């Protein structure tokens, strides 16, 4: 059994069954559901909740996910805990696949990015139009945008990942403890990953490919500003996966689930990876009390050119690290040069 956060009487009545009535009271949960459904039919909002929870009514009014909200609106989304269970089942199948099978999946993901580039860019344009109307910052708009060049670069990156699918089951090191007893450290899958990322739909195929490569189920929580882009990219990744494993092994959480709610699913999720701003990472680390978080510190995007460096190579690196994709989160922010290079022809070429 599980808690239903929303309940539509016309759609969900067959999903529930009631136990024996309580020996006291007025009929138990079955009576409560009937009364709540009657109130809903008469246009009265209803939430069934445990009244002993601290500030339960205030939290309900604030829109927090407390108890079960009754609604007339039919929904066709799969609950997140169910998605997590299916992702776990899929990860077990992935782990049994050969490295060659996982390689085929990822290469198909790469080819789908090129074969369906028009559909991807059309969905991305919808996101950009909405984001522009809502006044999204220019830097975030640039990260949100996709192009044929970006898709080609993504496809090439996925093909490179496909060459590394033999990483599972490898012995990293081993120690002989006694005659006939060996202690080995062997690479293995983690289970189910929850990856939370912001405004960059091009990161979704990368995350999916790395998850398949390592034999992990995957739950994706992207930013709402990339809704349409994330949906089509997830579908294409699932299409590539389906001949070998259930498409639900990769799932996009597109409901209005709060991150705090997702971080309560420690029973189903093995690792959380936030990918985004320093604020996002710190927030996830603070809220996740049940699930380990693989976070990162704030990046320092500096380049230093030493006096003994290959100056021709250094110039190419500096230009590429800033001019190729200025709005990227790892684009160069600060250039440091050795004092002996000041007022040299190389210094002038940098300016």
UniProtKB/TrEMBL annotation:
GO terms for molecular function: glutamate-5-semialdehyde dehydrogenase activity. It comes from Adineta steineri. Residues 62-343 form the Aldehyde dehydrogenase domain. GO terms for cellular component: mitochondrion. PANTHER family: DELTA-1-PYRROLINE-5-CARBOXYLATE SYNTHASE, GLUTAMATE SEMIALDEHYDE DEHYDROGENASE. Pfam families: Aldedh. InterPro entries: AceGlu_kinase-like_sf, Ald_DH/histidinol_DH, Ald_DH_C, Ald_DH_N, Aldehyde_DH_dom. This is Aldehyde dehydrogenase domain-containing protein.
């Amino acid at each position: 059994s599980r808690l239903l956060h929303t309940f539509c009487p016309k759609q969900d009545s067959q999903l529930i069954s009631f136990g024996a009535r309580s020996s006291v009271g007025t009929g138990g949960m079955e009576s409560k559901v009937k009364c709540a459904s009657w109130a809903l039919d008469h246009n009265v909002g209803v939430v069934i909740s445990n009244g002993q929870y601290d500030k339960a009514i205030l939290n309900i009014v604030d829109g927090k996910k407390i108890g079960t909200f009754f609604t007339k609106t039919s929904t066709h989304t799969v609950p997140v805990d169910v998605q997590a269970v299916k992702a776990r089942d899929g990860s077990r199948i992935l782990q049994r696949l050969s490295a060659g099978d996982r390689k085929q999946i990822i290469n198909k993901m790469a080819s789908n990015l090129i074969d369906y580039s028009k559909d991807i860019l059309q969905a991305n344009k919808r996101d950009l139009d909405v984001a522009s109307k809502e006044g999204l910052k220019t830097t975030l708009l640039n990260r949100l945008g996709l192009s044929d060049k970006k898709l080609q670069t993504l496809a090439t990156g996925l093909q490179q990942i496909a060459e590394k699918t033999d990483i599972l089951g490898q012995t990293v090191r081993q120690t002989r403890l006694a005659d006939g007893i060996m202690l080995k450290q062997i690479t293995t899958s983690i289970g189910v990953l929850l990856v939370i990322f912001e405004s960059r739909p091009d990161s979704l195929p990368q995350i999916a490919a790395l998850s398949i490569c390592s034999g992990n189920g995957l739950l994706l929580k992207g930013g709402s500003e990339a809704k349409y882009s994330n949906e089509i990219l997830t579908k294409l990744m699932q299409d590539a996966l389906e001949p070998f494993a259930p498409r639900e092994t990769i799932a996009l959480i597109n409901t209005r689930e709060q991150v705090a709610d997702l971080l309560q699913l420690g029973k189903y999720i093995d690792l959380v990876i936030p990918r985004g701003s320093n604020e996002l990472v710190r927030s996830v680390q603070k809220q996740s009390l049940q699930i380990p978080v693989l976070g990162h510190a704030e990046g320092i995007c500096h380049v230093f050119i030493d006096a003994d460096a290959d100056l021709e190579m250094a110039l190419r690196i500096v230009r590429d690290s800033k001019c190729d994709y200025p709005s990227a989160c790892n684009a160069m922010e600060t250039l440091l040069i050795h004092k002996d290079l000041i007022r040299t022809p190389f210094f002038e070429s940098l300016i």
